Structures are given as C-alpha cells and as structure tokens.
Amino acid sequence: MKRIRNAKYRLNVRRQPCLICGAQADDAHHLRFAQDRGMGLKVSDHFCVPLCRGHHRENHTWGAEKTWWALHGVDPVAWAENNWKAFCDAAEREDET
Q1: What is the Cα–Cα distance from 69 to 7, expressed in whole angstroms?
Q2: Residue 81: CB partners within 8 Å, gap ≥ 6?
Q3: Which residues make beta-bridge pairs with 50?
Q4: What is the distance, to the nearest Å, from the Cα of residue 92 to the centroid of all Cα atoms in its chain?
Q5: In contact, 68 and 59? CB cutoff 8 Å
Q6: What pLDDT shows up at residue 76?
Q7: Nearest to residue 45, comparing CAs of 83, 9, 1, 11?
Q8: CA 49 to CA 56: how far, in whole Å?
Q9: Would you say 62 and 33 are in contact if contact means Cβ atoms under 8 Å apart?
Q10: Of residues 50, 51, 36, 46, the one with CA closest to residue 82
Q11: First to last CA, the chain
C-alpha cells in the first residue's frame, strides 16, 4: 500500500475531538501497528487519528499500542478508515463543483 502524505488531511484529523477523552485534539497520531513501517518510515497519513497532547504522549510511552487502544475500548483503525473515506468523498465532491 502506498504511503500517503496529505497535510490537509492531517489538519482535518487534528480538528476532530480526541478519541479517548473528547477534548480538542492537538495531534494527528499515526497508528504504528496499522502498516509495516520499514526503516525510518511512518505509516500512511490515512492511518491517523485525533489525540489530545496528553493521550498522544501516553500512547507513545505505553509501548504496546494495540493493548493501549483496547484498554480504552476504541477501534482506531475503523475510525481512521471511515474518516479517510469521508475526507476523500468530500474532496471528490469539491472537485466536481
């Protein structure tokens, strides 16, 4: 799968509420487990989810990311896939006008 970089999409993600606490997100967190990263590569931007700074920091220090999400009862991959589709659909509608 191609690694997508899209600054407008990352801004869209940061404008959403934190998936854990509902506060305004500060960061577009890349789901590290969602795609093979390879040496020095981030996962694609379409695997970004909104997190406030505190939860973003907690996620990175936790270690086992999948477990962290499970403990919070959140399916971040489903959220990312749905948000990416909605973003692309909206962009396509804009291009048609």
Answers
A1: 25
A2: 46
A3: 28
A4: 21
A5: yes
A6: 97
A7: 9
A8: 10
A9: no
A10: 46
A11: 30
Query: Residue 22 has which token pair?
Result: 């509902």
Residues 6+ apart with CB under 8 A from 48: 9, 10, 13, 28, 29, 30, 31, 80
Bridge partners for 40 per DSSP: none
In the block, tokens 């960061």 appear at 27
Whether 12 and 50 have beta carbons less than 8 Å apart is answered as: no
Q: In the predicted model, is pLDDT for residue 7 greater than 90?
A: yes
Backbone angles phi, psi at 24, to 5 degrees: -60, 130
Question: What does the mean pLDDT of the chain come to?
Answer: 91
Q: Full-prediction pTM beyond 0.70?
A: yes
Report residue 86 as tokens. Answer: 């909605």
